[in-house]
Amino acid sequence: MAYDGDYKPLWRNYGLLLARMGRYEEAISAFEHVGHRAETSNNVDYICMIEGDLEMAK
Predict the structure, then answer these.
(1) Under a CB-based contact definition with an 8 Å cutoff, are residues 34 and 15 in contact?
(2) What is the spatial distance between Cα 57 and Cα 47, in angstroms, rounded to a whole number?
(3) Tally of CA atoms within 13 A in the half-sphere of 41 that contains its CB
(4) Does residue 44 lie in a domain region?
(5) DSSP 4
(6) Tell me, what DSSP letter sits at residue 34?
(7) Per-residue pLDDT at 1
(8) What is the pLDDT of residue 5?
(9) By its UniProt entry, which Gene3D superfamilies does this protein fall under (predicted)?
(10) Is 20 in contact with 51 (CB distance < 8 Å)?
(11) Residue 46: which domain range?
(12) Distance from C-alpha of 58 to C-alpha of 14, rounded to nearest angstrom
């Protein structure tokens, strides 16, 4: 299966999937294809908070 590596929704959804799986560093790398490091860290922290992983969200 081929994909367009510049398609931002792909990276956003992939980052969400990785974060929900607890693969936070990989999620940040995926989110970096869409935005800046600070913004991507905020996305992962938010998912951690929703998932109840408050220690990781810090």
Answers:
(1) yes
(2) 8
(3) 6
(4) yes
(5) -
(6) T
(7) 59
(8) 78
(9) Tetratricopeptide repeat domain (1.25.40.10)
(10) yes
(11) 8-57
(12) 22
Residue type, 51: E
Structure tokens, 55: 């220690």
Q: The pTM is what?
A: 0.70
Alpha helix positions (H), 1-58: 8-20, 24-31, 37-51, 54-57
In the block, tokens 């490091």 appear at 37
pLDDT > 70? residue 58: no
Amino acid of residue 12? R
Paired tokens of 5? 């590596």
Q: Which two tokens stand for residue 7?
A: 């398609």
- Give tens-digit pLDDT for 2-57: 778 788 889 989 988 998 898 988 988 998 888 887 787 777 888 888 888 777 76
